């Protein structure tokens, strides 16, 4: 063993005190009193709990007003009100997606998140402007944070002709995933909308991540259409349904039939665990073999004044939403912003084990459950084997 960096005196979730040896950006060894050469850089962990770097499974870096003066929200109650207000405000205010996405991404890193999936608006007004800003942020943070970009038709696709071509341009320009939005309620033609979406995904060989706010039977019908296309195109393991509120509205028997097919086709579900609308049941998903992971959605933007770039806080919201109180259950909520998020998004080499990429977070907490509830300052954040933040602040 010839590590270049060693973090000593940290505790695993089971309580054992260990050292973590890092070499070439990966975890080389985990164990008590690991040997080290005289020239190895050693960081004393001070008996902190060591966790894997967190995963933000669904946010909107391009929209945020993080660090800007307070935005006064007077938007109407409908989804379309929020869409049109945001598009108009961003154009009139000169909102800078590059500057703002970088500010929020840095805040994520400072709080221990090293993998991020962000949706970026693509529409016929702004074109690829917002994407270009987030691509700059991704380039700036290479080696510090992995950022997946979803080309997202926030204003709808069919209802704004030309958006489908722009989505293809976005994928050619560097977006990793194709997004979609409410094929029935926004595009008002679920068959054509999904056919178009999956045709683009198939053409560019990209995964799909769809926002699905549609309620009850309407949402269930859309999911069935979507699953048919996943099966026909062999896209198992490459599709995420974000929000999926309808699964929290259906009778248990009908829900479980849908969950069985979702599991069979390895489609993952994303939740933000909002308190105001029904959500997919975490227990039902676990029992049905469905991956349910978590994200913030928008943070401090024209849609919502809420949110923060702290995935331990989001794990706490997941726990509260699903009435998780025991330590073992709170650990399930943490899985939603760590292991399950990495699996669903396809972030490779993730975890706290030998051979994984060395993305680590140190916190003063007794257990994972304690960390989720108390959300202590991140003492140390390591990404790709390098220290990138200390005591809640990102390093230059």
UniProtKB/TrEMBL annotation:
<dbReference type="GO" id="GO:0016814">
    <property type="term" value="F:hydrolase activity, acting on carbon-nitrogen (but not peptide) bonds, in cyclic amidines"/>
</dbReference>
<dbReference type="Pfam" id="PF07969">
    <property type="entry name" value="Amidohydro_3"/>
</dbReference>
<dbReference type="InterPro" id="IPR011059">
    <property type="entry name" value="Metal-dep_hydrolase_composite"/>
</dbReference>
<dbReference type="InterPro" id="IPR032466">
    <property type="entry name" value="Metal_Hydrolase"/>
</dbReference>
<protein>
    <submittedName>
        <fullName>Cytosine deaminase</fullName>
    </submittedName>
</protein>
<feature type="domain" description="Amidohydrolase 3">
    <location>
        <begin position="48"/>
        <end position="389"/>
    </location>
</feature>
<dbReference type="InterPro" id="IPR052349">
    <property type="entry name" value="Metallo-hydrolase_Enzymes"/>
</dbReference>
<dbReference type="InterPro" id="IPR013108">
    <property type="entry name" value="Amidohydro_3"/>
</dbReference>
């Amino acid at each position: 063993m010839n590590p270049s960096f060693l973090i000593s005196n940290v505790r695993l979730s089971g309580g054992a005190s260990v050292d973590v040896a890092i070499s070439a950006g990966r975890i080389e060894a985990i164990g008590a009193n690991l040997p080290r050469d005289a020239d190895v850089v050693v960081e004393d962990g001070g008996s902190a709990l060591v966790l894997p770097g967190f995963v933000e499974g669904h946010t909107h870096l391009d929209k945020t007003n993080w660090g800007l003066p307070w935005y006064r929200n007077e938007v109407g109650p409908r989804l379309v009100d929020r869409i049109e207000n945001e598009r108009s405000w961003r154009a009139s205010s000169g909102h800078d997606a590059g500057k703002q996405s970088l500010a929020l991404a840095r805040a994520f890193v400072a709080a221990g998140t090293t993998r991020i999936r962000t949706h970026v608006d693509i529409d016929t007004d702004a074109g690829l402007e917002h994407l270009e800003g987030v691509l700059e942020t991704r380039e700036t943070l290479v080696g510090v944070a992995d950022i997946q970009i979803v080309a997202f038709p926030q204003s709808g696709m069919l209802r704004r002709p030309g958006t489908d071509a722009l989505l293809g341009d976005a994928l050619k320009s560097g977006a990793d995933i194709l997004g979609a939005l409410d094929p029935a309620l926004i595009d008002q033609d679920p068959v054509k909308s999904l056919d178009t979406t999956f045709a683009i995904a198939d053409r560019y060989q990209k995964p799909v991540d769809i926002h699905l706010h549609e309620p009850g039977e309407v949402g269930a019908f859309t999911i069935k259409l979507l699953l048919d296309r996943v099966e026909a195109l062999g896209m198992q393991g490459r599709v995420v349904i974000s929000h999926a509120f309808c699964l929290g509205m259906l009778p248990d028997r009908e829900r479980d039939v849908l969950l069985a097919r979702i599991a069979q086709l390895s489609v993952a579900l994303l939740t933000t665990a909002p308190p105001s609308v029904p959500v997919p049941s975490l227990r039902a998903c676990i029992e049905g073999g469905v991956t349910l992971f978590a994200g913030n959605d928008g943070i401090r933007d024209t849609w919502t004044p809420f949110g923060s770039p702290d995935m331990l806080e989001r794990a706490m919201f997941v726990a509260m939403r699903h009435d998780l109180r025991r330590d073992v259950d709170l650990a399930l909520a943490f899985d939603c912003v760590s292991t399950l998020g990495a699996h669903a998004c396809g972030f490779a080499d993730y975890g706290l084990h030998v051979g994984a990429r060395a993305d680590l977070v140190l916190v003063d907490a007794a257990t994972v459950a304690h960390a989720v509830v108390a959300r202590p300052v991140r003492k140390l954040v390591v990404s790709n084997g390098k220290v990138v933040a200390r005591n809640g602040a990102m390093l230059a």
